[in-house]
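Structure tokens please, single chain.
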Amino acid sequence: MVHQISKLTLERYNPDILVNISKDAGNTFDFYRAEELIEIGREAAIKSINRYKN
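Here you go.
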């Protein structure tokens, strides 16, 4: 249900930049992988920003 609400919200408010990260990248208790997950997010953000600039 949360996924559907998010999807509808994105359709309604169409953001300029959307950073997509796989839902399989991490789980609820993956705190020990914080550095790795931050890097995944950083790379995804850079890709999204570059796509927006072009």
